[in-house]
Write a structure and sequence with these properties.
- This protein has helices at about 5-10, 20-30, 35-45, 50-70, 115-130, 145-155, 175-190, 195-215, 230-235; strands spanning about 80-90, 90-100, 105-110, 135-140, 165.
- By secondary structure, the protein is an alpha/beta fold.
- The chain has two domains: about 5-70 and about 215-235, no CATH class; about 80-190, Nucleotidyltransferase, domain 5 (2-Layer Sandwich), CATH 3.30.420.10.
- A five-stranded mixed β-sheet has the order 3-2-1-4-5, sandwiched between helices.
- Helix 2 (about 20-30) crosses helix 4, helix 4 packs across helix 8 and helix 7 crosses helix 8.
- The longest helix is centred in the first third of the chain and has 20 residues, at about 50-70.
- The relative contact order is 0.16.
- Involved in the transposition of the insertion sequence.
Amino acid sequence: MSKLKDLEWLFNGRHFDREVIVLCVRWYLRYKLSLRDLVEMMAERGLSLAHTTILRWVKRYTPEFVKRWNRLATVAGASWRVDETYVKIRGKWAYLYRAVDRAGKTIDFRLSARHDVATAKAFFVKAIRFQGRAPETITLDGYAASHRAVREMKADKSLPARTKLRSSKYLNNLIEQDHRHIKSRVNVMLGFKRLRNATVTLSGIELMHRIRKGQFDLTSVHLKDTTSPSIWMAVLSAR
């Protein structure tokens, strides 16, 4: 991971206070608000903002926020529930691969324009890298490409031979329910224009969902209220 810059660098040259920027980006990613909703809310506070300005902030700062929060992330469980859902990009469906553990904690996600064995493998590789360990159990639905991806990864030792593969629609109800929290936020956004921008925004939505689930060790910042601006400033400035 590259060395993080300090807050002065992060917000250098911006015409609005960093607290305003963090607030707008955080609210947009967390709540069912449109960009124009946020413009109105800021106007009530005496701030004149264009919706395009907030959108630029989301694109610019979301990766930085994710990077900083991830330093405090805790490791999820080794029993994974994996499933795919759909996100519309420029009028076409893209595939959102997601996984949670048996307690419902988020493992990782990956957005792709394709839906095949190679894409499933790419998701598993990304998730293993992010978690720092391979799963002991992977539970899938009946989608054949994902099953094949796991078998091939075990064969080439990308996954340990001990990793157990299960197929269970019932057990995967957990991940299907978890999709709803992400999709309910995405639906208000009325679709994305580019895969890259969609991935950035989804990473922020997933971050907010993980914060709600308590997937971060906040002892180093000495604050517990994840909704307060103070904890965001503490996380962003922590070394």
